[in-house]
């Protein structure tokens, strides 16, 4: 990739809804088309649906049959989307956001400034991650 490219940033978060704690990022995925983005969620839902309780399984299959079409249409309009399933006390949320992927600069063959040799990494204190 040598030019910016439109795509979708997909994430899967879980959250214990009984303790009020922070959501945990479980997975992320860079998709380069709306079908690829919603397929990532669909595959995950189909994979976990046999292990879900009846209510959560119904939520999953409702999205797979009906909600997926609305999600795909929203993505094609460059709108962010979420899909949520609640299993007992765990909320699982997939987010899909339109993004522009930027190419990375390669350092090979480039002369870096001399100050880069003075850089000494240090360990920063751990700060809990908060989703935007």
Describe the structure.
The protein is an alpha+beta fold. The protein is built from 2 helices and 4 strands, in the order E-E-H-H-E-E. Strands 2-1-4-3 form a 4-stranded antiparallel sheet. Helix 1 (34-48) packs antiparallel against helix 2 (54-76). It is flat, with a radius of gyration of 19 Å.
Shape: flat
Structural class by sheet pairing and helices:
alpha+beta
Query: How much beta, percentage-wise?
Result: 25-35%
Number of helices: 2
The topology string of helices and strands comes to: EEHHEE
**Lateral arrangement of strands in the main beta sheet:** 2-1-4-3
| Helix content bin | 25-40%
Largest sheet: 4 strands, antiparallel
Number of strands: 4
Poorly predicted regions = none
Q: Terminal Cα separation, in Å?
A: 27 Å
Mean of all residue-level pLDDT scores: 87
Compute the CA-based radius of gyration. Answer: 19 Å
Task: Compile the SSE list and pairings.
Layout: E1 5-16, E2 24-31, H1 34-48, H2 54-76, E3 81-87, E4 90-101
Antiparallel strand pairs: 1-2, 1-4, 3-4
Helix pairs in contact: 1-2
Notable features of this structure?
132 residues, alpha+beta, flat
Can I get a quick summary?
The protein is of the alpha+beta class.
């Amino acid at each position: 990739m040598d030019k910016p490219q439109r795509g979708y940033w997909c994430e899967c978060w879980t959250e214990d809804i009984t303790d009020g704690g922070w959501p945990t990022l479980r997975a992320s995925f860079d998709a380069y088309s709306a079908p690829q983005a919603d397929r990532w969620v669909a595959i995950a839902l189909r994979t976990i649906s046999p292990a879900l309780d009846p209510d959560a399984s119904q939520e999953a299959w409702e999205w797979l049959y009906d909600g997926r079409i609305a999600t795909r249409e929203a993505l094609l309009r460059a709108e962010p989307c979420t899909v949520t399933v609640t299993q007992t006390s765990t909320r699982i949320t997939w987010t899909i956001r339109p993004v522009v992927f930027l190419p990375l600069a390669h350092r090979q063959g480039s002369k870096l400034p001399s100050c880069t040799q003075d850089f000494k990494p240090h360990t920063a204190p751990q700060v809990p991650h908060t989703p935007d």
